[in-house]
Amino acid sequence: MQKDLRAKNSNLKPQFYMYIFGASGQARAIIDILDPDVKISGVFDDDPKIKDILGFKVNGPVPEDFEFDAPLFIAIGDNKSRKLLQEKFQKRTSFGIILHKSAIVSRRTTIGEGTVIMEGAIVKVNTFIGKQVIVNTSSSVDHDCVVGDYVHIAPQATLCGGAEIGEGTLVGANSTVLPGVKVGKWCTIVAGAVVSKNLQDGAIKRRQD
Ligand SMILES: CC(C)(COP(=O)(O)OP(=O)(O)OC[C@H]1O[C@@H](n2cnc3c(N)ncnc32)[C@H](O)[C@@H]1OP(=O)(O)O)[C@@H](O)C(=O)NCCC(=O)NCCS
Q1: Which of 42, 72, 89 marks a domain boundary?
Q2: Could you report the per-residue pLDDT of 97-113, keeping only the tens digit for each?
């Protein structure tokens, strides 16, 4: 079993060039992680008014006939938008995976395409992380967790061992999901909440619930 998981992690090979989609806050965070070790091949954004990000030219929307010669990274914080963009571009390109050098990621994990593990985050053994996931600054994903596609684990959030997070859920900043708790798809866990019981799809977990 462990051997199998390690083999899946072989997609974490170094990438030297990447295109970026997005030119707002999340894109600034991503470019700041990549530059200068990974060369930014180009930046796109559907808002043609944005011309520059951190000194990189923003090229507007991706032209219909554009051929990607490097992986694309979708640097958009909104989970639904990342899903739509993944679906839009998946036939035309591969997607980068970004691990900040200060993140601690077990070799015995699976990390999906388009996912970023940011500064100081920890991902522990036997955890599965889907595609287009944001594991944000100093968050912690403990052993045996399952994190679905398009999830955002916000800064300093904690998933205790064996927690499961469904597709598209926002795990708010500094929130905690207790061991083995299963959170449904497209839920919102507000900043600072503690989730001690399973949540159904689409649930909003407030601090006082
Ligand atoms: C879930 C969330 C978006 C709710 O937003 P909302 O429903 O639009 O709520 P509002 O911003 O209108 O705030 C409503 C009230 O709740 C308060 N509030 C909002 N979130 C709160 C929180 N997590 N803890 C305590 N109080 C909170 C607001 O101050 C406001 O109080 P008021 O009525 O006394 O003025 C927001 O609470 C949240 O926690 N988002 C997660 C943010 C995050 O971690 N993002 C990741 C970014 S990297």
Answers
A1: 89
A2: 999 999 999 999 999 99
Catalytic residue chosen out of the listed positions 82, 124, 131, 143: 143
pLDDT of residue 12: 57
Q: Which CATH number does the domain housing residue 180 bear?
A: 2.160.10.10
Tokens representing 173?
A: 């900043």
DSSP strand pairing (110-111 vs 39-44): unpaired
Among 40, 72, 89, residue at a domain's last position:
89
Contact in structure between 171 and 157 (CB atoms under 8 Å): yes
**Domain match, 34 and 125 both:** no
Q: Is residue 71, in this structure, part of any structural domain at all?
A: yes
Residue carrying the six token digits 């938008």: 81
Instruction: Give the CA distances from residue 105 to residues 99, 189, 206, in Å, rounded to whole numbers and listed in that order.
Output: 8, 24, 30
User: pLDDT, tens digit, for every residue of 157-169?
Assistant: 999 999 999 999 9
Q: Is 143 a catalytic residue?
A: yes
Atom 4 in ligand 1: which residue has the minimum CA distance?
190
Q: Report how far ligand 1's centroid is from the alpha carbon of 190 (Å).
A: 7
- Which pLDDT belongs to residue 14? 63
Evaluate whether residue 11 is within a structural domain. no
Domain region containing 149: 97-209
What is the C-alpha R_g of the chain? Answer: 17
Residue 60 resides in a domain? yes
Judged against a pLDDT cut of 90, whether residue 9 lies above it is answered with: no
First to last CA, the chain: 39
